[in-house]
């Protein structure tokens, strides 16, 4: 770097390694390295506090989390790669954060509660730890469902129907006609609505949806937005990641 310190050295595996503590993003390596092997793209200013999660050495850092609010739909909007899906996976307990300690597989709830001490997130993780919050999460990549599940749509939904409301939810989401279809033979839009149905059929007081309107036409998007909005009440919180600003504005109380 500009101080004369070696930021890039040969690692134990004989591969180049960037020292995160020394790298300032000055760009010298980009100009000196042959064959355009290194590039610096959209490098943000590094924050000084400890990250909530880090994907390996030199990997993406996440520094904050949105907080669910009971009775409200909280929308999450932003460009690709800023950590929207990572954040809600942590909230949904799908991804266990490492608090920036990449050699550590995960942090326990005690560490998370201490990390967020004095914030709304502290109260959230305390309730999750005490099992006062039950979470239902709809994943972003619904196209993966046919690769991991097999059988008819109805049978798959019955397995997760904790509310015993399959008929009611199927009607509201307009998937009644595909209930007897094989999960591998339905369209992307149908898969999306089946995934939403599977999420809301679970008994939960926090529902998290990652891009619930992808694969849907505008008419279906508006119906899904209204459906999700109606889930929020004084005992239930909803969080939504969405790229469509108009739909999110219609759906969410806070963005």
Automatic annotation (TrEMBL):
Gene3D superfamilies, alphabetized: P-loop containing nucleotide triphosphate hydrolases
PROSITE patterns attached to this UniProt entry: 4FE4S_FER_1 (PS00198), 4FE4S_FER_2 (PS51379), ABC_TRANSPORTER_1 (PS00211), ABC_TRANSPORTER_2 (PS50893)
InterPro entries assigned: 4Fe4S_Fe-S-bd, 4Fe4S_Fe_S_CS, AAA+_ATPase, ABC_transporter-like_ATP-bd, ABC_transporter-like_CS, P-loop_NTPase, RLI1
Keywords of the record: ATP-binding, Nucleotide-binding
4Fe-4S ferredoxin-type domain: residues covered: 14-43
GO MF, one example: ATP binding
Keyword Lipoprotein in annotation: no
Name of the protein: 4Fe-4S ferredoxin-type domain-containing protein
Organism: marine sediment metagenome
